[in-house]
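dumping this here so i dont lose it
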């Protein structure tokens, strides 16, 4: 089946950028695309001179709608005004365009989303939001959440997430978030009913077998829910990625719940049995699970890190931790004069204890930045490799200033802190290599908001750096 596409309105903000993308999609000169866009903005329409397949139409409709066009499909060609003659797909553009894989002339060769081929150079991640813009959204959310006794929380959270997503960009194009507050509310209600049933069962046991049986049932229920946190996290990740799109193509998460459950059970058990030495390997396995099961269209992310690579850094930070904790107990040996009087020892401990945490905190910041650099460097997608270049000093400075902002504003600066983190990531994260985005096609996965609602029940925000 095939159809014609009709553009009848434009509601975007950047006409120049929209004209460039229109020219790229339909293989026309920039001047032709600009003329079409100018006429459409004045109320006229433009229709494709050739029919396109339904698959191509679906991709184009999604992409052009995201840019700001109003797009309609038609089974037959309409009689439109002379604007249609301005852009003729029969003509080759008067310039050489290297990113022509998205045109409909080559669309029969690949089932084509409108994603151009990426040249071999670093692609940047951008963030364009402001603290003031997010503060307005969050302030209104706080007020409405209070007046609705918490019900508006889910719609407010969606507005915040949509703002953050749509202010984020990659290779010059912004993301879009399709989730709704109603979905989150429904997921939270279902999870709340499950908890209510479990609590009701515990109460019934208490009535039948006594208070001790009820206590054991409540403890068992708590352990059950905590042990199922990885399952809940998978549901939340599926929902979140399935509602995220870039250039009209959605992301998805395809990890299995039982795989996540076994991964976390094994990881914590082995870490306990090895006195913590298994933790670097568990850290890498978690990264591999969350990243390698994330897809953009039909292409999966890849992660190839190894636990042995970060074992040395892990041992060093733990050595620093042991030294910081053990140093106060070694004071009498290091400074014999202190042990002569109990008052002197107590005074020394009071003065020394707050200070010993400083190198530990700084060390942890450097370790955290090192892990981020390592994990991103081991992450690839469609031929491109991520690079994160933030240093430990930069990460420490960001966190300490954000902490001061939150402390001295009684957390009113939270929106500004969130924006600072997003801008920091965008500044230091790039993608290198020849990323083959032209081969990506839509392959959406169904997902409910139950996992997201459950995550809200635990006040969890899953963020793995994707």
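and the seq i came up w/
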């Amino acid at each position: 089946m095939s159809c014609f596409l009709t553009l009848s309105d434009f509601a975007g903000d950047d006409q120049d950028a929209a004209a460039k993308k229109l020219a790229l999609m339909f293989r026309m000169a920039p001047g032709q695309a600009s003329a079409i866009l100018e006429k459409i903005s004045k109320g006229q329409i433009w229709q494709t001179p050739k029919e396109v397949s339904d698959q191509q139409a679906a991709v184009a409709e999604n992409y052009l709608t995201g840019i700001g066009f109003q797009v309609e499909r038609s089974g037959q060609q309409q009689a439109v005004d002379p604007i249609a003659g301005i852009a003729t797909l029969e003509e080759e553009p008067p310039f050489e365009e290297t990113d022509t894989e998205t045109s409909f002339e080559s669309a029969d060769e690949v089932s084509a989303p409108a994603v151009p081929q990426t040249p071999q150079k670093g692609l940047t991640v951008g963030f364009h939001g402001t603290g003031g813009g997010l503060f307005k959204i969050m302030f209104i959310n706080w007020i409405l959440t209070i007046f609705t006794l918490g019900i508006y929380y889910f719609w407010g959270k969606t507005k915040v997430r949509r703002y953050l997503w749509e202010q984020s960009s990659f290779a010059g194009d912004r993301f879009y978030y399709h989730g709704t507050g109603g979905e989150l509310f429904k997921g939270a209600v279902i999870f709340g009913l499950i908890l209510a049933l479990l609590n009701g069962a515990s109460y019934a046991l208490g009535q039948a077998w006594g208070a001790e049986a009820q206590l054991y049932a409540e403890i068992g229920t708590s352990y059950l829910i905590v042990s199922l946190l990885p399952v809940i996290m998978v549901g939340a990740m599926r929902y979140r990625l399935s509602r995220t799109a870039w250039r009209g193509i959605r992301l998805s998460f395809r990890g299995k719940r039982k795989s996540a459950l076994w991964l976390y059970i094994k990881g914590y058990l082995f870490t306990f049995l090895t006195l913590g030495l298994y933790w670097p390997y568990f850290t890498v396995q978690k990264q591999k699970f969350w990243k390698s099961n994330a897809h953009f269209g039909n292409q999966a992310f890849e992660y190839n890190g190894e636990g042995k690579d970060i074992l040395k850094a892990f041992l060093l930070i733990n050595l620093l931790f042991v030294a910081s904790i053990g140093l106060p107990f070694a004071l009498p040996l290091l400074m014999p004069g202190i042990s002569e009087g109990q008052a002197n020892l107590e005074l020394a401990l009071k003065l020394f204890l707050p200070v010993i945490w400083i190198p530990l905190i700084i060390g942890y910041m450097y370790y955290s930045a090192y892990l981020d650099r390592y994990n991103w460097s081991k992450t690839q997608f469609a031929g491109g490799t991520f690079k994160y270049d933030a240093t430990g000093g930069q990460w420490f400075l960001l966190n300490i200033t954000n902490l001061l902002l939150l402390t001295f504003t009684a957390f009113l600066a939270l929106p500004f802190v969130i924006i600072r983190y997003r801008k920091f990531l965008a500044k230091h994260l790039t993608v290198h290599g020849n990323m083959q985005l032209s081969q990506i096609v839509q392959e959406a996965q169904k997902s409910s908001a139950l996992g997201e609602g459950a995550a809200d029940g635990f006040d969890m925000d899953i963020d793995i750096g994707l």
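DSSP finds 15 helices and 14 strands in the chain.
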